Structure to design on (177 residues):
């Protein structure tokens, strides 16, 4: 009786990608990140301010109403500062023009290096994936915060994106350039 050779089931291959950041990379990532964070923040501040002012006005509390309007104005100012200064500055430091970008997509892990910052994610900890025209965002139980790990589109092969979105995404097709 013929015995076949033993078959070794190799794990899926690791896909490695790399690129060099161009002069517009930081700006593109910044705009993409601001869309996500800014909309939620502005809606929350607006709804809270309107509801508190309306409640105070209905009770005839003018001093509290003025205080609430002042707090709302300061909050909007801080939001604008974060929106127009802090977020773009962070991305310019993270991915200046000419910096090396790398990603590695394996069956059990995903690693991304933007400039000198490396982030590793175990696939088993991924809680969500979404994409826009600029980046793929991976949320994980290991990465606190709404943004999660941001991977520029230039580093994400179409088959990897499709697989991640099918498994962890909102099942809407992502937009590409």
């Amino acid at each position: 009786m013929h015995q076949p050779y033993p078959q070794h089931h190799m794990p899926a291959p690791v896909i490695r990608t790399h690129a060099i950041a161009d002069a517009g990379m930081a700006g593109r990532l910044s705009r993409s990140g601001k869309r996500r964070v800014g909309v939620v923040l502005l809606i929350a501040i607006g709804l809270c301010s309107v509801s508190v002012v309306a409640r105070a006005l209905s009770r005839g509390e003018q001093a509290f109403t003025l205080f609430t309007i002042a707090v709302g104005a300061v909050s909007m100012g801080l939001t604008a500062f974060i929106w127009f200064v802090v977020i773009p500055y962070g991305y310019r430091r993270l991915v200046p023009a000419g910096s090396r970008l790398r990603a590695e997509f394996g069956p059990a892990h995903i690693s991304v290096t933007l400039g000198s910052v490396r982030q590793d994610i175990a696939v088993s900890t991924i809680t969500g994936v979404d994409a826009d025209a600029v980046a793929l965002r991976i949320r994980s139980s290991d990465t606190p915060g709404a943004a999660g790990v941001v991977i520029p589109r230039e580093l994400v092969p179409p088959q990897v994106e499709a697989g991640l979105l099918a498994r962890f995404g909102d099942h809407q097709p992502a937009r590409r350039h």
